[in-house]
UniProtKB/TrEMBL annotation:
UniProt cross-references to InterPro entries, sorted A to Z: Cyt_c-like_dom (IPR009056), Cyt_c-like_dom_sf (IPR036909)
UniProt keyword annotation of Ion transport present: no
Pfam families: Cytochrome_CBB3
Protein name: Cytochrome c
Tree of life domain: Bacteria
Sorted UniProt keywords: Heme, Iron, Metal-binding
PROSITE patterns per UniProt: CYTC, PROKAR_LIPOPROTEIN
Single GO MF annotation: metal ion binding
Domain Cytochrome c: 109-194
Amino acid sequence: MRYFLLIYALVVAVIVGIAGCRGSMSRKPPIEIFPDMDRQLKLRPQQPNAFFPNGISSQPPVPGTVRRSQPIQTAAGPVLPFEDAPVNTGRLPGTTNFVELNPLAVTGALLQRGRERFGIYCAPCHGPMGDGNGVTRKLGMSVVANLHDQRIVEMPDGEIFNTITHGKNLMQGYAAQIPVEDRWAIVAYVRVLQRSWLGTLEELPGDMRTALERQP
């Protein structure tokens, strides 16, 4: 045991003596335990290189590559994902004010997409009708917002988008799970649920109103 401790102390002293000189002034090159971390094999962009058959280092994207900066089609025109625009932030550019209306064109396809995404991400807590009576309420989670409350009905569309993105209170943010366009689709569908819940008979077209009035 005594010899082991002596050898151990000697090894530690040698290691400290060698590694401890790292950073001191010397004309000798530093010790590189993993030289590939400092000296990597890489291609310089826009420079000739014989590795590829066409002789250049910067290659075009592989066919079928998905662009990371694919623009989002809004009612006002295409917007890139990194722009400070209402479709990306839910706010007026350069302010903290939420936009009043959905920047996407509200179409049947958008509402159908919103209905699908709402059923996946929102209905478990808020319920299929948005009244807060989802599965989690039955499991004991009592604090779930009713999307038909007056304060939510009066919220700007941008504020609902912001809540979906970043979360609020016990609700987590869904920015990582739901793309920007799908978040706006959910906002549009929430407005449809609110309209169906709070609408009056007088607001219906004549034929639909007549059909409802005839029902017992």
